[in-house]
Design goal:
The protein is built from 9 helices and no strands. With about 130 residues, the protein is mainly alpha-helical.
Length: about 130
């Protein structure tokens, strides 16, 4: 039910909700190539590495705690929140569309979120 609550504002039909919720249940097989080209670079890989370190150390896997980590990374690197959130969103969902990113990470779970971030970092290295 948490996923339904998170998705209900973005989806008009149940079919659309089911299609846009796959990444909560299945691993990401592909990334939106245009989104990757726009939002991923060597700097993005470093940003995601710092995020992985901070999230790994996080004991409270709540949306609020995750949000604070994302804000801290944004401030530490002196980049806009969107420059942090969009790469995370792509790593989590394969696209640039999702519920708020902190809620998305919380619902996906800590281990799976960190694994997806590492996969995106490795993908970035291959670009």
């Amino acid at each position: 039910t948490d996923i339904i609550i998170a998705q209900r504002e973005r989806c008009k039909t149940l079919k659309e909700m089911a299609e846009r919720s796959r990444y909560f249940y299945e691993e990401i097989k592909t990334y939106d190539e245009a989104a990757m080209k726009k939002h991923f670079s060597a700097e993005t890989a470093e940003l995601l590495h710092q995020l992985v370190d901070a999230l790994t150390a996080l004991s409270d896997w709540s949306a609020a705690a995750i949000h604070q980590v994302i804000i801290a990374i944004s401030e530490r690197l002196n980049v806009k929140l969107g420059q942090v959130a969009q790469p995370i969103r792509i790593a989590m969902t394969g696209s640039t569309i999702s519920p708020p990113i902190d809620i998305t990470l919380q619902l996906i779970g800590k281990d799976r979120s960190i694994n997806r971030l590492m996969k995106a970092i490795n993908y970035t290295k291959a670009l």
